[in-house]
Amino acid sequence: MSTNHPASTAPRLPDDELNLIDAYWRAANYLSVGQIYLLDNPLLHEPLTPEHIKPRLLGHWGTTPGLNLIYAHLNRIIRNRDANVIYITGPGHGGPGLVANAYLEGTYSEVYSAIGENVDGLRKLFRQFSFPGGIPSHVASETPGSIHEGGELGYALVHAYGAAFDNPDLVVACVIGDGEAETGPLAASWHSNKFLNPVTDGAVLPILHLNGYKIANPTVLARIPHDELEALLAGYGYRPITVAGDDPANVHQQLAVAFDEAFDQIAAIQQAARVDGETQRPRWPMIVLRTPKGWTGPRQVDGKPVEGTWRSHQVPLAETRNNKEHLAQLEEWLRSYRPDELFDDTGALRPQLRAIAPEGTRRMSANPHANGGLLLRDLDLPDFRDYAVAVDKPAAETSEATRVLGTFLRDVIDRNRDRFRLMGPDETASNRLSAVLESTDKTWLAEIDPVDEDLAPSGRVMEVLSEHLCQGWLEGYLLTGRHGLFNCYEAFVHIVDSMLNQHAKWLFSSSEMTWRRPIASLNYLLTSHVWRQDHNGASHQDPGFIDHVANKRPEVVRVYLPPDANTLLSVADHCLRSRHYVNVIVAGKQPALTYLTMDEAIAHCTRGLGIWEWASNATGVPDVVLACAGDIPTLETLAAADILRRELPDLAVRVVNVVDIMRLQPDSEHPHGLSDREFDAVFTPDKPVIFAYHGYPWLIHRLTYRRTNHAQMHVRGFKERGTTTTPFDMVMLNDLDRFHLVMDVIDRVDGLGTKAATLRQRMADARLNARRYTREHGEDDPNISGWTWDSGFRASEATSMAQDTGDNE
Amino acid sequence: MSTNHPASTAPRLPDDELNLIDAYWRAANYLSVGQIYLLDNPLLHEPLTPEHIKPRLLGHWGTTPGLNLIYAHLNRIIRNRDANVIYITGPGHGGPGLVANAYLEGTYSEVYSAIGENVDGLRKLFRQFSFPGGIPSHVASETPGSIHEGGELGYALVHAYGAAFDNPDLVVACVIGDGEAETGPLAASWHSNKFLNPVTDGAVLPILHLNGYKIANPTVLARIPHDELEALLAGYGYRPITVAGDDPANVHQQLAVAFDEAFDQIAAIQQAARVDGETQRPRWPMIVLRTPKGWTGPRQVDGKPVEGTWRSHQVPLAETRNNKEHLAQLEEWLRSYRPDELFDDTGALRPQLRAIAPEGTRRMSANPHANGGLLLRDLDLPDFRDYAVAVDKPAAETSEATRVLGTFLRDVIDRNRDRFRLMGPDETASNRLSAVLESTDKTWLAEIDPVDEDLAPSGRVMEVLSEHLCQGWLEGYLLTGRHGLFNCYEAFVHIVDSMLNQHAKWLFSSSEMTWRRPIASLNYLLTSHVWRQDHNGASHQDPGFIDHVANKRPEVVRVYLPPDANTLLSVADHCLRSRHYVNVIVAGKQPALTYLTMDEAIAHCTRGLGIWEWASNATGVPDVVLACAGDIPTLETLAAADILRRELPDLAVRVVNVVDIMRLQPDSEHPHGLSDREFDAVFTPDKPVIFAYHGYPWLIHRLTYRRTNHAQMHVRGFKERGTTTTPFDMVMLNDLDRFHLVMDVIDRVDGLGTKAATLRQRMADARLNARRYTREHGEDDPNISGWTWDSGFRASEATSMAQDTGDNE
């Protein structure tokens, strides 16, 4: 463990440079305080009065001086080394600081021309902050240089790593607040250094900012002995460099040395790996910065300590409009930064300060990596049709959909080695995507044993047993202009529900910023899904992520349920080409029937839903619609249709398959929504619809409640009934099985007569028999699991078996 | 950093004892393999044939021998020291191991009498595992001695700490798999030792089991240098004791020494804190155990290494029914444990082995702490009516609902210092529950500075910036028979969506185990909710947790939206008294109008929903129903009713308030559901219902789509439109404001005439004016924000203002 304490070294900064950096820091702090407080009088050209103060004081001061300090020192490094650096703000509440720096660099006025570099611009800059019609109080898509929402804590470091992958020239400076450091995702993110390849990836420079407090409490990492903290960080695989103090001049000196050392170490590590062929995992540098919370703000307010305590978290002086003492303290605080030295009379930053900021795209607020769409290059995609499985007739042969997709992804990876990654929480093989390992390895910088397979620093498949890391790495990778896919067990993707929320919010709000360019979509492949986790049991059975996603802005969310291998290929190709969406694909990995040729699959997926004529016997208006979405519901629906066609040949059945469930919504609610006329043409205005759906059944009601025929829609789906059992028992537990669907039809269609009543009883018997078979044999009746469109329903056997035993359970 | 390597010490176990422990371990391993493979011939009294093998081989062998080894050695410690120990299984996939040990201890046959301690019992034990109608493949509620589902990884250590709080006599042994250790929640959980009071809490003994692999990949912690790992664990605040090897006899010796040392250290720490008054945070011991994955299983299968690799994760020999070599290998593997030495001819465990297991409730499988309901004692609750706010007339005075609740919780804490905790992610003060600090402190074992307030090891309020830790600690605390409440910002509770899933599954499945007793409910107080996060912006605005919870089994979920302070008190009291539910309470923290006296509140909450006659002018059948659920929707609905009554006095308006939204569901779907007759009586069978709802509007449709009047229900709620703005602007953005509700009424009620048309235009103008006021002043128009039932709508002012400016935006 090598630790540097640069405090003990000689001063690094000549007085001139120190004074300039300090002035720059003061300027950023001044602009930050101004944003929180001031409606007007931005440069204090007149004495401060209550009318200059905002009526509602909203913002977070506590973390801001630290963010500004780091920013100023990174500018020095960028200028001195022509370094390519982006700045990730863990303590995203410190929005004023990042806005201030973007303004000081000129980027803000370039992006938002109404906010000029003059007194009027300053007034507008201040007024808009946390003001109705203005900008958010946190770092957000509105903030030039930011790649993520700063409201929900925990994802800074994992985003930083995602940004660094395949950007060998980039250094991602990542400020981690000591509050954020208590979160689970952040705690796990430190280990991302076992997945960073020093040859082809950039560097991440974590800066753990210990200001000691979160909202109202001290933080854990600030309150353990320093040697314990250093052990922890060394244990995470870093070499911490510590900077600590509350005297600005002293801290400036320390921090300048620390950044120099850190960048020297990064350069040395990259040189060793790239030129000298070093293959040992490096111990990357990081910085621990201990400075007071709310530094340079009011020391005491109303007799209580504020600077250096939790009381500086938000607005240290809360009564500035009504309390003269607070107002005076605010003026004193603002003037302590000596604004006249920083800005000239017109409100422009003085030239000697502007000169110490980087220029052009080297400015962290203007670095194109922080506006990933600018750098986005299309994927070079092979023709997905080349991976099609042959389908001579529908529902006759089987394939494993995700295994087929794996061959396509293998070649996607092969053709896009600089811009595509596949993430998975140790489930890529389980999800049957192993073909990808024919063209690449799994990223691994930790130790490798001789028995291991397919591990290498250069691997394009990233596996770690943390959905948070998979999601976060991918988000960081996409936000900086690349592509990828996250494959995950369906039930456990709920682990990242909240991350999805924040990313979806970012996608929507950034789509409203004309200066931000669209990025690649966040693609989920959810497999090992609810209906085929019979072997793992209840803990692995949850299809609710679709519901969660459906609550997000319709402009940015898409959900696809391809029923077989060829439709999965078509959907996956579409998703990989799309921009700025969250695409959720749910598909099975087990051997399953194929239904559509590639041409049919493309046509079907393009429409998003459609009538399957080959499975229907209704030529005109049907007596009943059997609708289905999802591979298992499709199988059960077709088997039900098969029974109905054989046993009740006079019943006109229409089979409808839905791939894109957003088509079910009205076109007023979702861009993919069908018009009412289109919807009625498919689902009829008045016939019973038995809808077999992959997930919780009420989602279909939520999507269709405005439709003409909604009252006639009867939805079967997962009703939270699961356990360790067989696949067919799973569908039976939830009344989604073919036999129950036939019973549903008989119950809903009027006037079917005694033949139907007899069939209904046979279906009930068949369910009992199936359950008995399963419990006796430990596997499903092959008459059921082996069903194909041609094999038919052996109703006679089921009936006789029920009669044999007399079981009427 | 003090590290012990007991390998270097002298042998601890005499040969006899070592042989007995090894035999016990072999017995557990034998039973584990038997469960995975065997339908019959459980003791190999005849040669193994394919008919003895299950048709589907489901289970996880890889982690199991390690779990069994640790169990056997803990038994030794328990016996030697009469220790009170429970066993938490992080690698919950190792279900066979925990079932095997419960069976060896006799607990299994006590709980499940059909599974006796004889050959027939063994046959049933084996057959039921992962078999339809049998038991899950993972540790689950069916497993005696378990306190949680083992399917989703990450929560073992946080549950262990939750179990240890306020159980001074208990040692919670917690096995952490090296796969699980990669998850975020687990990574954060290590720091729980800063929240464990050695005086009044028990001890947690983490056992990090490094078998090197997860499903298909090596693990990070197994593949960093040992000194780096030790630094990490020391950084987390532990003293690791390492045991490593692949020779059983040697590992037995090491592990015996390690456990002795760990328990000695625990005793010394507790003695120092409890007797000698030591107040420094102790460095608790932990064990690092490095043994091969799938240890004692097949070394090679089909020429490939299996023992010690990822290939042993599930079923090492997959073709035992069809492949003679696999079958022979399986028989050799099973016989390697020498079952004849372990069980007598009747199938009973030999007495010398039974004798080395603990007895009675000292058996980890029978420890009552692992069946928390057995130990549950009612809370001593003060009378919540004593905390009521005075309400002389409705909608006239304000209070802060959560601040009022805080006074009640203060006294709940005071009266239940051994059995109630309040959890919050650094938000308890922000959520205005600070009154609790009048009776207690915040738990804190890390360093305390002079400036800090309300921190102490004995605190009953637990604050850490990790929703995962808050949730996990509380789950562990509840599962072991205590009570608590988790207060959280509404938007960020999504962070624990997946944990909620698993806990809800546990609650439901455990309710079906007659031998498990009900535990206290998991209570959420969600505040700082979507409508009052206007200042924090979009990232803090998400009401979707209710939707997530509503997907869980109706038997175990309850959602309450009390509209004011007194209803919040009534609901909170009810939830704290309830058992075995997930209760979600959503309530505001800002000053808000009060509506009901305490008596009225109790009556209203008991009904769950009801007509507010005082706000309605309809005496019989209304022309329109204004329904509302949630504090802000209630405010806007009442203000809309006020406008309608003044401006359209002939319109018969009924106001309905909903506290318990599960009442909206049919009684066939949820135990709280209203009958259709009751529902129709409140909401009418055919009149327009304008429903103002706290969250995503479609949830109300999902709950009511089967109701007679569903087609007439028009729901307003959060449509994912948010930003940093003012409270009233937030409701306007989502069309939930009073003015829009009036417009909705006018749009939906037929035949209202020209006066209504004029009013509609005035409402549209009022919206424009409100928005303009907000953007000019940075706060809401006090005419709007100051509305009370008596103040009325100053429509004239709004209209004239619109006319003045001519703005028709």
Task: Give the helix/strand layout.
The structure is a homodimer of 809-residue chains.
Chain A: H1 15-37, H2 64-81, E1 84-89, H3 95-104, H4 107-111, H5 119-128, H6 156-164, E2 170-177, H7 184-189, E3 203-210, H8 226-235, E4 238-244, H9 248-274, E5 284-290, E6 300-301, E7 304-305, H10 324-335, H11 339-342, H12 351-354, E8 398-400, H13 401-415, E9 420-424, E10 442-443, E11 455-456, E12 461-463, H14 467-479, E13 483-489, H15 497-511, E14 522-527, H16 545-550, E15 557-560, H17 565-577, E16 582-586, E17 591-593, H18 598-607, E18 609-611, E19 624-629, H19 631-647, E20 653-658, H20 676-683, E21 689-693, H21 698-704, E22 713-716, H22 727-733, H23 738-748, H24 753-777, H25 782-785, H26 795-805
Parallel strand pairs in A: 1-2, 2-3, 3-5, 4-5, 9-12, 9-13, 10-11, 13-14, 14-16, 15-16, 19-20, 19-21, 21-22
Antiparallel strand pairs in A: 6-7, 8-17, 18-20
Q: Structural class given helices, strands, pairing of chain A?
A: alpha/beta
The largest interface is: A-B, 123 and 123 residues
- Using DSSP, what is the number of strands of chain A? 22
Q: Write the CATH homologous superfamily of the largest domain in chain A.
A: Thiamin diphosphate (ThDP)-binding fold, Pyr/PP domains
Biggest sheet overview of chain A: 6 strands, parallel
- Low-pLDDT ranges of chain A: 795-809
What would you call the shape of chain A?
elongated
CATH C-level category of the largest domain in chain A:
Alpha Beta
Determine the CATH topology of the largest domain in chain A.
Rossmann fold
Oligomer: homodimer
Determine Rg of chain A (CA atoms, Å).
31 Å
User: Within the largest sheet of chain A, what's the order of strands?
Assistant: 12-9-13-14-16-15
The percent range for strand residues of chain A is 5-15%
Annotation field: number of helices of chain A:
26
